[in-house]
């Protein structure tokens, strides 16, 4: 399974929705809470080019936020991304 990294805050409902979708799929992910760590927030902004949370990365691919994650699910593309061969 491809690695998943998600930048979140504790109070964000969109973060919770994104985490719920990943949990429902049994996906292991690294959750980086940017509330308490300004350096991680800065890394997120530099990597994603966005200031809002959540910001989701599957492997090296920046997926975007919660709506983008759910769009991939609706389009049937999320499972393929999560199971991508690491060499691709």
TrEMBL record:
Q: Which residues form the Glutaredoxin domain?
A: 4-63
Record PROSITE patterns: GLUTAREDOXIN_1 (PS00195), GLUTAREDOXIN_2 (PS51354)
**Does Transport count among this protein's keywords?**
yes
> Which SUPFAM superfamilies does the UniProt record give?
Thioredoxin-like
User: Which InterPro entries does its entry note?
Assistant: GLR_AS (IPR011767), Glutaredoxin (IPR002109), Glutaredoxin_subgr (IPR014025), GRX_bact (IPR011900), Thioredoxin-like_sf (IPR036249)
Domain of life of the organism in this record? Bacteria
Q: Known NCBIfam families for this protein?
A: GRX_bact
Say which family it is in: Belongs to the glutaredoxin family.
Output this protein's name.
Glutaredoxin
Q: Which organism is it from?
A: Isoalcanivorax beigongshangi
- Lineage per the UniProt record: Bacteria, Pseudomonadati, Pseudomonadota, Gammaproteobacteria, Oceanospirillales
């Amino acid at each position: 399974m491809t690695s998943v990294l998600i930048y979140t805050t504790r109070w964000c409902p969109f973060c919770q929705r994104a985490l719920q979708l990943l949990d429902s799929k049994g996906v292991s992910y690294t959750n980086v809470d940017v509330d308490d760590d300004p350096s991680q927030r800065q890394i997120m902004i530099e990597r994603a080019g966005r200031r809002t949370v959540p910001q989701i990365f599957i492997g090296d691919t920046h997926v975007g936020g919660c709506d983008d994650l759910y769009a991939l699910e609706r389009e049937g593309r999320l499972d393929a991304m999560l199971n991508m061969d690491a060499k691709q």
